[in-house]
Amino acid sequence: MRSSLGRFNWIMFAAMLALAAIGTVFIWSAGNARAETMFHDMWKSNLVTVGVGLAVYLAIAFSDYRKFLEWCAVPVYVAAIAMLVAVLIFGSKVYGGRRWLWFFQPSEISKLCVICLLASLFGSDGRRSFRWFVIAAFLVMLPVGLILLEPDLGTALTLVPTVVLMLFVARVWRRGLVMILAVGIVSAFALLGAVYEAEKPGVTAARRERILKWVPLKSHQLSRVKVFLFPEQDLTGAGYTLRQAKISIGSGGFSGRGIGKGEANHLKYLPQSISMNDFIFCVYAEETGFAGSLVLLSLFAALLVSGAWTAVVARDSSGRLLAIGVSTLVFAHVWINIAMSIGLVPITGLPLPFISSGRTFLVTVMAGFGLIQSVSIHGREIKQ
Fold this sequence. Notes:
This protein is mainly alpha-helical and 384 residues long. It has one domain. The chain is built from 15 helices and 2 strands. The chain has helices at residues 2-6, 10-32, 42-61, 65-90, 106-121, 130-148, 153-169, 174-199, 205-212, 219-229, 240-250, 263-266, 280-313, 317-341, 359-378, and strands spanning 92-94, 97-100. It has a two-stranded antiparallel sheet with strand order 1-2. The chain starts with a helix and ends in a 6-residue tail after the last helix.
């Protein structure tokens, strides 16, 4: 036990607890501004969730991740696929999508299950050929396809950089990965260019229709891309949320208006339905300002650098891949969430780790960092 505590990553643990505490405070702030009294006590529910997540974190941290990957990686992956199928059949329909199975979101759990399976599968040498790449692609695309059917494009997209980096570090068909990444980047820019050409002022309806028939986006996704490309065109309609998000962040100044005193939130300029989850960073930035935002980003940096360092010092490939996978997934969430709040990427429904409300996501992320902590504790026990 003493040796385990000696290898315990206290910086990671402290940063995680600090972020969870900040999240609870600002869920209170965002919820207190809502008219529905049921949201006023959401911070209490979040506090309970933090407690559950902490228990899961510590239980996983002091267990040997190698035994977990050996015995549980495949069963939990199969269970995740079963839950993703079940949610499409029995799940609750909210905002046009089926994402909830009773009280939890299988899509959030499935991301961690995919990371564990890949870490287990490619933790062994000799699995670097194109054949193993195809196997990995199938194992990843199965849950991604089910998540897209919910539909939940944002959640599915976060797995892309996670899986690509894990396979690259595992040296699985690296040349092919680089080519696929290049094709993906070119395709993304081509899609943006097509939407820009179709939606720019002065384009005839016929030309717009001809271009958009080749764009594989649904109407709400197309609207979000249009807002990203032309943020000033529809300020009272589709572009309203992004405009208010930017105003909210900018009005915080250097030191902010004070916790619980954000005008955009209390005056309901920032839509209430998103102030506690996807756009909670706007509430935080207005109330704590640039200084508070810098503190938040520093805590995320400490957490993610700790995860990356754990990957560097791990002596086995499976532990290294596990730490890289979880860290990349969380980084993707942080970057996309904050970037969409300030208009750097199209708006997508992704929560900010530890800060946004969401029980399944919070417990899953804490479980993921519990696995990284387990790598920190047990990953140096194997001699090269």
